[in-house]
């Protein structure tokens, strides 16, 4: 079986024939593998937490996956499109035991293609039904977006839960009087913008540069606004979502978050510092501002994300396909894994 493999903490990526003995009753043929910053961080040897499964000296990459069932059961049948859940629980803490491994308390979880478990950048894999999410055939190739979208669904769900501390909705019970600013216009930023727009927020997508033609088309079609912060000022906001991971992007905006607002931190870089002043702390305290970090997702978040993709495909049609800016063959994968392609939103590897 052909697979894309790495040696964690060592730069480089290889295409190799492998044989893996796996547990699981469902056999899945990989159709598309999405590429993201985590994959590239592992390939470049930058992520210390990446590790192979026990007893292996290599790791099969891949955690953004659209697959097709080849051998199934009564619920997942041959031909069904599926997406695997990335994080697998520790089996010890209560959160993991009830399907919320995204809140694992022991840190002993594994993540396919990242930490302690082989991923799905290969021709096929076996998995358990509990780890697979069936997606509607109508969404087709954009099903590969479900893994990153599940993380966005989880973050917005947690935000709503926290904001029930008071009355945050508007007089008409919606969020139409609230403004959300999303920093970053990559795939996660755009998925946040669509999710928040669907919830009813007035959405601004912000970056330090003009939008690419594809970014502009997606933002315009979905009814949001794009602001280039190098030449325009952002207004006050009720919600600030940072997908960049750069403190220099969101720290100066703390003063623009309105009373009872929230800051959601999603992006990570580990390569920058920015100062939070005593005045910033005072403003956060006096205005009841929430700062929330979010990572990973549960199976329920994947399922809810699948429902959103169906809705968006019906609402926006071919605009959703614009998220996939490039498809490459397996043989071309090492090159695009090492270097981001200019103008890229989502590059995918096409297997069959």
UniProtKB/TrEMBL annotation:
InterPro entries: ADH-like_N (IPR013154), Glc_1-DH_arc (IPR026583), Glu_dehyd_C (IPR031640), GroES-like_sf (IPR011032), NAD(P)-bd_dom_sf (IPR036291), Zn_alcohol_dh (IPR050129). Its EC number is 1.1.1.47. GO terms for molecular function: D-glucose binding; glucose 1-dehydrogenase [NAD(P)+] activity; NAD+ binding; NADP+ binding; zinc ion binding. It catalyses: D-glucose + NAD(+) = D-glucono-1,5-lactone + NADH + H(+); D-glucose + NADP(+) = D-glucono-1,5-lactone + NADPH + H(+). The keyword Glycoprotein does not apply. Substrate binds at residues 38, 111, 147, 151, 296. Its cofactor is Zn(2+). It holds the Pfam family ADH_N. Belongs to the zinc-containing alcohol dehydrogenase family. Glucose 1-dehydrogenase subfamily. This is Glucose 1-dehydrogenase. It comes from Metallosphaera tengchongensis.
